[in-house]
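Bumping my old thread because nobody answered last time. Still need a sequence for this structure:
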């Protein structure tokens, strides 16, 4: 079977079933002493185009998408490690601007690696600490589903040829971490990411699309890249409630009481 047929989730399931990876069901790896570690790579031509965003914006994005995984783990960021692969003709000033962007969220870069490559690849490892990681497997029937902010804005900006900086939701993640039964960030679209929680938790997530604060249109909800936090919790605090958990499986998206289907992003199967 090819990767284009299996998809990212199929690949992970295959590796997990063979005992080659473990503990990958959450947004980050939880280690002893409350240490939480996550890693994300951005590849030129796949995740970004330098004719659509600046070097500084690329650095800010690379840092923020990793910090978002820590926020989804109710972790406070402590440090970043950056591996950078670049063609030799890149200007030094561009790399400086990239690192200025990496520093924008306020988490120090403490190390990493650089190497020559045919295209720009930036991989960031983010480290933080959490007193309690909600994970993805704890959602239960009766829980409310909440989101920390508007969805669809990244998709709307992309269609307009613009770039929007992802939000940093660390403080929101820390608050939700005290009550949430499950939590992740919305990177692949509401349908796909809610599906992760439903599958790992063994329950059904029912989401009212009309209750979601929108940064774009309903069609933009399938784009992902919003990096708001999606959580299930018995106590919604003051966050917008967009649905509920119930007995069953999968995700049911409703609009005006009628079922709706939304696509999301899937690595390897997307063209």
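Sorry it took so long. Here it is:
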């Amino acid at each position: 079977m090819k990767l284009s047929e299996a998809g990212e989730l199929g690949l992970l399931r295959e590796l997990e079933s063979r005992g080659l990876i473990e503990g990958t069901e959450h947004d980050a790896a939880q280690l002893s002493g409350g240490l939480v570690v996550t890693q994300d790579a951005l590849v030129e031509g796949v995740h970004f185009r330098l004719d659509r965003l600046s070097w500084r914006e690329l650095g800010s994005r690379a840092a923020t998408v990793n910090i978002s995984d820590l926020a989804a783990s109710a972790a406070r960021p402590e440090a970043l490690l950056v591996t950078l692969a670049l063609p030799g003709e890149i200007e030094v000033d561009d790399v400086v601007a990239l690192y200025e962007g990496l520093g924008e969220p306020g988490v120090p870069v403490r190390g990493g690696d650089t190497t020559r490559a045919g295209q720009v690849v930036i991989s960031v490892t983010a480290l933080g600490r959490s007193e309690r990681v909600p994970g993805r497997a704890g959602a239960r029937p009766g829980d409310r589903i909440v989101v920390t902010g508007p969805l669809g804005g990244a998709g709307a900006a992309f269609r307009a040829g613009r770039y929007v900086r992802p939000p940093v939701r660390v403080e929101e993640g820390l608050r939700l971490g005290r009550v949430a039964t499950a939590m992740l960030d919305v990177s692949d679209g509401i349908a796909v990411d809610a599906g992760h929680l439903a599958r790992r938790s063994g329950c059904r997530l029912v989401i009212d699309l009309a209750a979601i604060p929108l940064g774009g249109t309903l069609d933009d909800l399938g784009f992902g890249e919003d990096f708001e936090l999606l959580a299930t919790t018995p106590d919604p605090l003051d966050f917008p409630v967009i649905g509920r958990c119930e007995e069953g499986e999968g995700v049911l998206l409703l609009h005006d009481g009628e079922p709706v289907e939304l696509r999301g992003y899937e690595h390897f199967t997307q063209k």
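The first strand starts at residue 29 and ends at 30. Let me know if any region looks off to you.
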